[in-house]
Write a structure and sequence with these properties.
Chain B: It holds the Pfam family AtuA. Chain B: Residues 4-444 form the Acyclic terpene utilisation N-terminal domain. Chain B: InterPro entries: AtuA_N. The complex is a heterodimer of chains A (99) and B (449). Chain A has one domain (3-94): Alpha-Beta Plaits. Chain A is built from 3 helices and 4 strands, in the order ββααββα. Chain A has helices at 30-36, 39-46, 90-94; strands spanning 7-14, 17-24, 54-59, 64-69. Chain A has a 4-stranded antiparallel beta sheet with strand order 1-2-4-3. Chain B contains 13 helices and 18 strands. Chain B has helices spanning 18-26, 41-51, 61-75, 88-101, 118-123, 153-160, 173-185, 192-205, 257-264, 333-350, 370-373, 394-405, 407-410; strands at residues 3-10, 31-34, 78-81, 107-113, 143-148, 165-168, 233-238, 243-247, 274-275, 280-282, 287-292, 295-299, 302-304, 309-329, 357-363, 382-391, 416-434, 441-447. In chain B, helix 1 (18-26) runs parallel beside helix 3, helix 6 packs across helix 7 (173-185) and helix 7 crosses helix 8. The chains are: A alpha+beta (99), B alpha+beta (449). The interface between A and B is large, with 41 and 51 residues.
Chain lengths: 99, 449
């Protein structure tokens, strides 16, 4: 099953750091997300897109995980050569994870 | 218990204006807040001001004010905005001109300054750039601007002094919303729990439509009604900081637990320490509860003592970017686009263009997430080649687009829709300075009846 069936996501940018939320549609699926969507899985899935560290914050009260990815935005939106300089589309990439 | 209703009139510089008018007319709000200043906007505005001393504020300011001021005056709504960008004084004068032309005096316009710390930064070259660890002095003459993020305090002062419109430069986005709550409820600036709760409200509201169904729709998974008429949010806040996020009845979009959760984590790193000039806000214990259609209750935010330093955005010249694009369609489109890509790469080598960085993307294939994630995707019907490079001069940047455009007569068959551009890059990095070095000021301006 794809993560998209269980969760929704939004990406934010600050400087060269991206954050990607993964939010369970149903509270009862949160534990499954916490077990399946690990730092290692995210790092492996996004591969070369991540140049820095990956940190995960767990928010069980909100049924959500928050991933913070440093050095991921080509130096930041103000200087990046990327078409998606904000990295906005990363949220859609993460929902393609198999869980 | 007393409640205060705040509306968001804009979530970025180019945002739609109609929802702000809807809020002013039918939102039953006391404050209308326009957040229009992205990371880089103020650096670009500083450059504009350097060229023309009367410029350097939000280009839509006059249009926005003309659209909302009549209803705001009629309904007793105070406007708070960072549309002053690099030139709050000129922005204030522009608001006054709109008010006079519409006969909307008397009007008290407060102008908040003190965020421009360019001279202070130039004198404190020992400061460190957060992103790189290098000293600020390494930016040398390329530094074009330095703006500190101010907090709620000067806006609270302006409101106490009876401002009808508050125009600021760089202020932390949530502080624009926290300020009227501090003013209305008399919250103490060192009550970190209340500062955290007010900051939570501000954070949910600062991107306007992003909490009311904008940037949310995913057909079949997350459907949003009437997105074309997306309404902007209202926060109804109680004196204890608990809030309900809602919107004008009949407007498009939707407000649910899911829309609020997405926005709560937007641009957040450690949810237990969301740093603003006002507080180290703690969102980790927030509860989000649906109280009715398009009504979500938000509570449980907290906070700890505010940081001792203020974040400063450093705008600096970072060379030039040149870009060119051209499309291929129909059978063999991908093969022709790949051939075109290889040709441009080789021609850039042949002419010896001194590139600091180069990207060759196939839009529709690998431009967004690279070749690995898209490897298993089926071949698209149409593909667009995009070549982007970083150079030292504008002339060099222009060569990149020219090499792409040249594919019309010098490349594979059937290339169409070539475009090119070249631009100067003002990039932004950040540093921290002791808050004692920054002195926010409030100037009041009167428009007579």
């Amino acid at each position: 099953m794809k993560l998209r069936e269980l969760a929704h996501s939004r990406t934010g940018d600050k400087g060269n750091t991206s954050n990607i939320s993964v939010i369970a549609y149903r509270a009862e699926d949160y534990a499954r997300l916490e077990a399946a969507v690990t730092v290692e899985r995210v790092r492996h899935h996004l591969g070369a897109l991540i140049q820095g560290e990956v940190v995960r914050y767990a928010l069980p009260g909100l049924g959500a995980l928050n991933f913070v990815l440093t050095r991921t935005l080509g130096g930041g939106v103000t200087r990046s050569l990327a078409l998606d300089a904000h990295g906005k589309c990363l949220s859609s990439a993460i929902l393609d994870l198999d869980v | 218990m007393k409640r205060v209703r705040l509306g968001t009139g804009a979530g970025y510089s180019g945002d739609r204006i109609e929802p702000a008018v809807e809020l002013a007319e039918a939102g039953n709000i006391r404050y209308l807040v326009f957040e229009c200043l992205a990371e880089r906007t103020i650096a670009l505005a500083q450059l504009a001001k350097r060229r023309d001393p009367s410029a350097g504020f939000d280009p839509l300011l006059a249009d926005r004010m003309a659209a909302v001021l009549p209803a705001c005056r009629r309904n007793g709504i105070t406007i708070i905005t960072n549309m002053g960008a690099a030139n709050p004084h000129a922005a204030g004068a522009a608001v006054a001109a709109v008010a006079r032309s519409l006969g909307l005096g008397p009007l008290r316009i407060a102008i908040v300054t003190g965020d421009d710390v360019t001279e202070i930064i130039r004198a404190r070259q020992d400061l460190t750039i957060e992103e790189t660890g290098a000293p600020v002095s390494s930016l040398a003459d390329s530094l074009v601007s330095a703006n500190a993020y101010l907090g709620a305090e000067p806006i609270v002062r302006a409101l106490k002094d009876g401002a009808d419109v508050v125009v600021t430069g760089r202020v932390a986005d949530p502080s624009l919303f926290l300020a009227p709550l501090v003013h209305e409820f008399g919250w103490a600036a060192d009550d970190w729990t209340l500062m955290g709760k007010g900051t939570l409200v501000g954070h949910l509201m600062e991107c306007a439509g992003q909490v009311s169904g904008g940037y949310f729709a995913d057909p079949g998974y997350k459907d949003v009604p009437n997105l074309a008429r997306l309404g902007f949010p209202i926060a109804e806040v109680a004196a204890d900081g608990a809030a309900t996020i809602t919107k004008v009845a009949g407007s498009g979009g939707l407000i649910t637990g899911a829309t609020c959760r997405e926005q709560l984590l937007y641009e957040v790193h450690d949810p237990a320490r969301y740093l603003t000039p006002d507080v180290a806000a703690d969102f980790s214990g927030v509860s989000i509860t649906e109280a009715g259609p398009d009504q979500v209750r938000v509570d449980g935010g907290g906070g700890a003592a505010r940081p001792g330093s203020l974040k400063v955005s450093l705008g600096y010249g970072d060379g030039y970017i040149g870009e060119g694009q051209i499309s291929y369609a129909g059978p063999g489109a991908l093969a022709r686009a790949r051939l075109a890509r290889d040709i441009v790469a080789e021609r850039l080598r042949i002419i010896g263009l001194p590139l600091r960085e180069l990207r060759l993307d196939l839009i529709g294939v690998d431009a967004i997430h690279g070749p690995e994630l898209s490897a298993a995707a089926p071949e698209p019907y149409e593909v667009r080649l995009r070549v982007a490079g970083r150079t030292h001069t504008l002339k060099e940047a222009e060569r990149i687009g020219n090499e792409v455009e040249g594919l019309y007569t010098n490349g594979p068959a059937g290339g169409g829709g070539a475009t090119k551009m070249a631009k100067e890059v003002i990039a932004v990095q950040s540093t921290l300075i002791p808050r004692e070095l920054v002195t926010p000021q409030v100037h009041m301006m009167e428009v007579q009846p």
